[in-house]
């Protein structure tokens, strides 16, 4: 049986609509107009034990709403949801002892006290036996390199350090499921990387189930085998990262450094030229033709250096999010991912197959 | 560990961490303790001036101590005011209403929905911790003030049974103050902004609790109406008990009614919490 089972889950909110102007404000005292906002529009989802799933989507897509329902903070308008055979919003203690939720923008630790004190409080809240508490805490503190910071008031920690403390607090009771809402938001690259490494290691070692939302593709690339793309309250895609790349990356990026600029303008016959700064040239070539085109190019031109990479994930997702929900399938079939160039395309050569000569 | 044992452990842990938190800001704390005496000082001077003026109006050299307002002479009035200060040290809950309202608005109550721990219980333990730390620090200044003003207490030190009654009443006024202000904070589930409501409550409580003047100065039928309200148990009733105005059966009966109010407001709190969460789960989050 799946660990998490969601069926036809919907969530609607009533949002007060304020009209512009003073008179409208006065009228609003007596008569209010509400707009129904659909946060989730009938999603189905199954998650097995030990999976590391990323929820991806633009702001307001329904990612956080899903996590809130799963952790019992809010209840859905309709549909069913069972997690480890519990209904989350009944909030029974037996369920609450088996999961944890960490929100990147919310602080659960006691602000004015060292994190150590919050940990101890968690020990009692979750009824963790003393020896287990000590072992888990020492392990986490060691993994995250927090030893020296335990006695420092939380308010004096950096954002990255605080997030590590939050994670430690959340994992003290050894939850079977961990919900992470934007755990790396606002962190610098090093802190992001540290947290990714930790999560990866911890998840592999303990085989816990993690559901994560993030805006950082790096998080998802580094961590998740499975990606669920939510947009406008619906699941648009559910599969592995490799599948997304295969399905939506219809082109690969070929970067060349040429010995001379002879015939450089003819390169467009192989694909779209996205950058032309001799001797550097960048082309987008349909995936199926990369091998043959590359052979031809190497044959015809004097090439000093060449590398082949996939377009950055950001680009694929941005494309997915902006397209209407119905035509995703179509995009995949027609094979013309009209990807726009992004400045990040150089740096984010995700699964780059690099050939050097 | 038994269920009760682990529950007591949890309470103790919350209590301890709250005490530690309270001790972080020493400066603010010391200042706050001292500031508590200032408003009362102005109140005492005000009454002094009133009694003085009344004596002067007699024009026949009447001693100020011979003047009585509905049975209160100047000494009684000053003693009453000092005792109100003591009662308010138990029943006032600075920041409780606004704290609850803010955590509802900002979604900080999520913590209590996710973790197996009760918010109202935690807040109560926190408040007990804060109060106890406060008493520990304030007992010095309080003892000094009462010692210096001992001559105003014409009735002398309360008898043992009266003292026992006073302790119960003070604990009751702490619990009642907590429950009433917590209820007010929980209204934030429905009205996002409760600060004006809290202000109205503060004003009402200022008059109706006996903070300004002894409630038995009120003319009929106002005194009768005020007697039906819970506010008097926050300030007037404890002071009256300490002054020996309420004794015997009347005292017992008063304590019973006070604790019934405590239970009533605590039940209301719980109800607001449950209903509020249902609403929060539907709309907010």
How is the topology of this model organized?
The complex is a heterodimer of chains A (357) and B (285).
Chain A: E1 4-17, H1 22-30, E2 33-47, E3 52-56, H2 63-70, E4 78-83, H3 93-96, E5 99-103, H4 115-125, H5 130-144, H6 159-171, E6 177-181, H7 189-206, E7 209-213, H8 217-223, E8 226-231, E9 234-240, H9 241-248, E10 251-258, E11 272-277, E12 280-286, H10 290-300, E13 303-309, H11 313-322, H12 328-334, E14 353-355
Parallel strand pairs in A: 3-7, 3-8, 5-6, 6-7
Antiparallel strand pairs in A: 1-2, 1-4, 8-9, 10-12, 10-13, 11-12, 13-14
Chain B: H1 3-22, H2 26-35, H3 37-58, H4 74-91, H5 96-105, H6 110-114, H7 119-148, H8 160-186, H9 195-208, H10 222-228, H11 236-242, H12 248-283
Helix pairs in contact in B: 1-7, 2-7, 3-4, 4-7, 4-8, 4-11, 5-8, 8-11, 8-12
Q: Overview of this structure, please?
A:
The complex is a heterodimer of chains A (357) and B (285). Chain A is of the alpha/beta class. Chain A folds into two domains: 4-8 and 43-244, P-loop containing nucleotide triphosphate hydrolases (Rossmann fold); 250-355. In chain A, 34% of the residues lie in helices and 28% in strands. Chain A has a six-stranded mixed beta sheet with strand order 5-6-7-3-8-9, sandwiched between helices. In chain A, strands 11-12-10-13-14 form a five-stranded antiparallel beta sheet, with helices on one face. The termini of chain A are far apart. The relative contact order of chain A is 0.12. Chain B has helices at 3-22, 26-35, 37-58, 74-91, 96-105, 110-114, 119-148, 160-186, 195-208, 222-228, 236-242, 248-283. Chain B has 285 residues and is an all-alpha fold. The longest helix of chain B has 36 residues, at 248-283. Chain B is elongated, with a radius of gyration of 21 Å. Chain B has one domain (3-283). Chain A binds chain B through residues 13-14, 65, 68, 71-75, 77, 89, 91, 93, 96-97, 99-101, 103, 106, 108, 110, 112-113, 117-118, 120-127, 153, and chain B through 1, 6, 9-10, 12-14, 17, 20-21, 24-25, 107-108, 110-111, 113-117, 280-285.
């Amino acid at each position: 049986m799946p660990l998490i089972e969601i069926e036809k889950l919907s969530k609607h909110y009533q949002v007060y609509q304020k009209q512009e102007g003073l008179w409208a404000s006065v009228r609003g005292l007596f008569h209010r107009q509400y707009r129904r906002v659909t946060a989730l529009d009938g999603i189905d989802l199954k998650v097995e034990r030990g999976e590391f799933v990323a929820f991806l989507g633009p702001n307001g897509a329904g990612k956080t709403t899903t996590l809130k329902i799963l952790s019992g903070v809010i209840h859905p308008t309709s549909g069913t949801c069972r997690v480890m055979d519990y209904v989350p919003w009944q909030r029974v203690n037996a369920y609450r002892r088996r999961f944890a939720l960490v929100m990147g923008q919310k602080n659960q630790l006691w602000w004015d006290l060292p994190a150590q004190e919050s940990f101890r409080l968690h020990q009692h809240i979750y009824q963790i036996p003393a020896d287990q508490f000590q072992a888990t805490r020492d392990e986490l503190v060691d993994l995250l390199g927090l030893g020296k910071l335990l006695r420092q008031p939380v308010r004096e920690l950096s954002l990255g350090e605080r997030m590590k403390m939050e994670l430690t607090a959340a994992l003290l009771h050894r939850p079977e499921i961990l919900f992470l809402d934007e755990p790396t938001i606002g962190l610098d690259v090093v802190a992001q990387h540290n947290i990714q490494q930790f999560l990866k290691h911890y998840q592999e070692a303990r085989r816990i189930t993690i559901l994560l939302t993030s805006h950082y593709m790096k998080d998802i690339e580094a961590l998740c085998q499975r990606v669920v793309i939510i947009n406008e309250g619906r699941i648009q895609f559910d599969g592995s990262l490799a599948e997304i790349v295969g399905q939506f990356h219809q082109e690969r990026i070929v970067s060349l450094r040429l010995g001379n600029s002879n015939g450089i303008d003819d390169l467009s016959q192989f694909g779209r030229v996205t950058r032309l700064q001799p001797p550097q040239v960048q082309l987008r070539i349909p995936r199926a033709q990369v091998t043959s085109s590359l052979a031809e190019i190497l044959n015809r031109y004097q090439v000093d250096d060449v590398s082949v990479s996939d377009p950055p994930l950001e680009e694929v997702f941005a494309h997915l999010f902006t397209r209407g929900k119905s035509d995703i399938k179509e995009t995949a079939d027609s094979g013309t991912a009209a990807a726009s160039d992004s400045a990040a395309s150089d740096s984010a050569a995700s699964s780059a197959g690099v050939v050097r000569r | 560990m038994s269920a009760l044992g682990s529950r007591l452990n949890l309470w103790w842990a919350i209590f301890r961490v709250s005490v530690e938190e309270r001790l972080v800001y020493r400066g603010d704390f010391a200042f706050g303790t001292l500031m508590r005496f200032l408003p009362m000082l102005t109140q005492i001077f005000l009454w002094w001036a009133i009694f003085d003026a009344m004596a002067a109006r007699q024009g026949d050299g009447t001693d100020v101590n011979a003047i009585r307002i509905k049975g209160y002479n100047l000494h009684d009035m000053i003693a009453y005011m000092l005792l109100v200060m003591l009662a308010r040290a138990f029943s006032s809950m600075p920041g409780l209403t606004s704290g609850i309202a803010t955590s509802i608005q900002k979604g900080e109550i999520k913590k209590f929905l996710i973790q197996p721990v009760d918010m109202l219980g935690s807040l109560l333990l926190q408040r007990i911790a804060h109060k106890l730390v406060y008493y520990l620090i304030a007992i010095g200044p309080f003892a000094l003030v009462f010692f210096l003003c001992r001559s105003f207490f014409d009735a002398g030190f309360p008898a043992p049974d009266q003292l026992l009654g006073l302790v119960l009443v003070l604990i009751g006024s702490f619990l009642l103050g907590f429950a009433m202000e917590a209820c007010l904070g929980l209204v934030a589930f429905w009205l996002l902004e409760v600060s004006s409501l809290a202000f109205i409550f503060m004003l009402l409580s200022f008059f109706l609790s006996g903070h300004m003047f002894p409630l038995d100065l009120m003319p009929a039928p106002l005194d009768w109406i005020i007697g039906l309200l819970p506010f008097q148990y926050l300030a007037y009733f404890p002071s009256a008990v300490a002054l020996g105005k309420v004794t015997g059966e009347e005292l017992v009966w008063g304590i019973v009614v006070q604790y019934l109010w405590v239970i009533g407001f605590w039940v209301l709190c719980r109800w607001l919490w449950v209903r509020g969460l249902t609403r929060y789960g539907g709309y907010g989050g």
